[in-house]
């Protein structure tokens, strides 16, 4: 008789009685995991004559890829734009806490700051895989300081910079290092920005357009030079105008290079963007939608005063403002909340809502071969969700790293 042992000695887990998000649709199918990867059961059955070492009954839950947050400024009292001696412990804390909200990978985001802050913080950001210690770190998102003063939002004006004669060298001097940098948000209308966009793109760094007064032709030129993302669409940019739709016009532009897709971030918290605007964006360019939290240090804490880099911000309910003003300054929304609001506001399918927080950010960063799907051989980073898309359990590399106590599993 054939042995039921796998060719590999690593244990095999089989997740049964679930609805699996695969191929952009939910289907009743078991999920198989070995050595932190999604396993093809046909290979296991027919080539290896193997079977599962352990079975887990998902009790009808949805299994979906882990969420990826590419714009998160902090949370739970931790501000990623404040240089501290124990900065790494802050990254660890946020990484652990966001597991309960379905985030399995994230990009710590730094808002506009003095060069000395970048020089202190960036060497302390380590790109790493997730696990029981917390969500994986994909690299830093540098939101500024090369942005427009007119659309600075919550960014401190005295720290905003333009590019000098040797533009890319100026950027390097400002940040100190690009070793851990994954995304840079800049305003494309700034002189010499094209040179910077080209150089960043050559190094595999995603360039995002935001905090900008760029018109559509300037935005299109930036995309032609390599930009692929828009930072929090509609916020901190020129409003849509029918004769020149500005950066928003990229969603339907016919000047996007062949084979290139422009993605756009949306803060789907019910505060930053009216549901009608959310629907317009989604219907215009559904495959480009990337849900982000833009969460600040006050996420997960009681209302009151907190920080966002160099600024003091005040939380009033779900609103966050620069203290003493009505200027929005990030959010206190969690990713699972954003997914549920997006689903409700747009009436899209469950699959579409989940992909906006998983597949699309993975595609943006060029890691869809590893993250953002439950395809065979991809990382076994996934969630168990109920029908209302509340997270019941979070898995990274096939290991349970968080679960709701009431799950009873």
UniProtKB/TrEMBL annotation:
Amidohydrolase-related domain sequence ranges: 62-400
A GO BP annotation: N-acetylglucosamine catabolic process
Domain of life: Eukaryota
Entry annotated with the keyword Metal-binding: yes
InterPro entries in the cross-refs: Amidohydro-rel, GlcNAc_6-P_deAcase, Metal-dep_hydrolase_composite, Metal_Hydrolase
Residue ranges crossing the lipid bilayer per the database entry: none
Pfam families, alphabetized: Amidohydro_1
The keyword Disulfide bond appears for this protein: no
Annotated pathway: Amino-sugar metabolism; N-acetylneuraminate degradation
Protein name: N-acetylglucosamine-6-phosphate deacetylase
Species of origin: Gallus gallus
